[in-house]
Every structure is written in C-alpha cells, then in structure tokens.
Amino acid sequence: MIIDIQHASWRRDQTTIINDISWQVQPGEHWCLLGLNGSGKTTLLNMVNGYIWPTTGSINVLDEQFGAVDLREHRKKIGWVSTSMQQRLHGHEKAENIVLSGKFASIGIYNQIEEQDHAQALSIMKQLDAERLVGRTYDTLSQGERQRILIARALMASPELLILDEPCTGLDIFSRDQLLHRIQSIAMQDHAPTLLYVTHHIEEIMPCFNKTLLIRDGAVFASGDTTAMVESKQLSSFFNTPVDVRSETGQRYSIRLV
Ligand SMILES: Nc1ncnc2c1ncn2[C@@H]1O[C@H](COP(=O)(O)OP(=O)(O)OP(=O)(O)O)[C@@H](O)[C@H]1O
C-alpha cells in the first residue's frame, strides 16, 4: 500500500486540527485532495512526509511505519512541490542545476555530477517542456516556468510518491492548462509515481486523478472515485452551498454557484 493512515488526529494548543482521519492509497491510484482554506490539507500532507507526528493514530507510507524508519532516507522517495519550496531555492542558481539538485534532495549542488545525471535532468526538462530554460537563472523565470522546474526537480529523484500542493497558484489559464497536461502525461508514463494533487479548484482535476478526498474541518468528509465525489449533490453538501457541477467530454469539470 502507498499510504495507510488509521485514525490519525493532530492537536495543537487544545485545538484539533486533524480529526480522526483514515485514508488508504493503493498502487495505481492518483488522488486529488479537495478542501477549502484551512481545512487541513497541508497538515495532512505534512504527516505523510513525516514533518509532523499524529497525536493519536498511525501513519504508514510506502510500507514504512513512521517511528521505525530513517525519515531522511524515507523523504527521498517522496517528491514535494509547493510554493514554500520555491522560496527555499537560490534565485541565482541555473534552472538545470535546480533540477539536478533534486537527485540529492539538497538545495544547492554539493555532489559529483555524472554525465548520466545531466542527461536525465535534460530528458525530464524536455518532458515538462522546459528544455529551453537551460542556462537561465531561477529568478528570471516566470511563475509557470518555475513550477515546471520544481516538478522536474522532484522527478529527478525518481520518487514513488509525488505531492503537488496547489501547483497552479499564480498561473494564467494557458500556463495552467499546459502544466495540467504535463502532470497528466507524468501520470500516464511507465513506472509513474503515485500523484497527490492538492487544490481548491475542481477545474484542475485531470482525468488521471481517479480518486478524490474531500476534507473539511480537519476530517474526511467523503472519499472515493472522483466521479462520485465531484458531482453536484456531493459537492453541494460538502460546501454547504448549492453548486452545479458539469463534466465535459474530455472529463474536465466545471462548477458554478446555483
Ligand atoms: N503549527 C500550527 N499551529 C497551530 N495551528 C495550525 C498549525 N498548522 C496549521 N494550523 C491550523 O490548522 C488549520 C489547517 O491548516 P492547513 O494549512 O492544513 O490547511 P489547508 O487546507 O492546507 O489550507 P490552505 O488551503 O489555506 O493552504 C488552519 O486553521 C491552520 O491555521
């Protein structure tokens, strides 16, 4: 099993932030995590990555029981793309070096780079339509280009699990669509990592996300097949507001308030 969370809760200063969450992710599934601001998505993913520990309950990720595993080694199997990651990178670094650094899970490059590492970095950049960014420093890249470089960096370590935390933040509709199609193509390739995609926007749910977790007030509101989760009745009750959800032929969703 990729993720097996049993009755996990996390309390901070007498507040329950994660409340009795149980969630299982099987190989071959790609999950979308949908929830409003402050619903607990990032906190839940921090648990998956071992950054925080549940107050009660158990977390098992990639068949490793937390508490019995070297977390530094463990995290190498998990790619993480988020805006907070962007802020930790050095702006003067070249795009390809940022991608390469993903192999060592480091911010700069301190290791010997082999020719095959360069080739791998280039091939991943190509896959993300980012090969023309070779030679450019990170601080000169647009938001959309930075996101592609960050995803390439995460893929460099051949992760088993790839967490994409609101990767389309700040992107215009064209860059957003382009990035979403790249993400879809990552999911379709051989030996693809399991994807966890966090968003507020159901329009971003690509066909590869066959499972969806609806999270509200730190608890699982519902989870299961995306087709059953992302539909008018379910989401109206999830948002406590009537919404009309449409699914286009290409299996992309749209939503409007009724
Ligand atoms: N270390 C902490 N101490 C106290 N409260 C926290 C801590 N971390 C998170 N919270 C609170 O827990 C709740 C859930 O936060 P979290 O960041 O997980 O939500 P989210 O669903 O990722 O939100 P967003 O979509 O806005 O990023 C919020 O109310 C937040 O203020």
TrEMBL record:
Gene3D superfamilies the UniProt entry points to: P-loop containing nucleotide triphosphate hydrolases
ABC transporter domain sequence ranges: 3-242
Keywords from the named record: ATP-binding, Hydrolase, Nucleotide-binding, Transport
Domain of life: Bacteria
Keyword Hydrolase: yes
UniProt EC number: 3.6.3.34
GO MF terms, alphabetically ordered: ATP binding; ATP hydrolysis activity
InterPro entries assigned: AAA+_ATPase, ABC_transporter-like_ATP-bd, ABC_transporter-like_CS, Metal_Ion_Import_ABC, P-loop_NTPase
Signal peptide bounds: none
Record protein name field: Iron-chelate-transporting ATPase
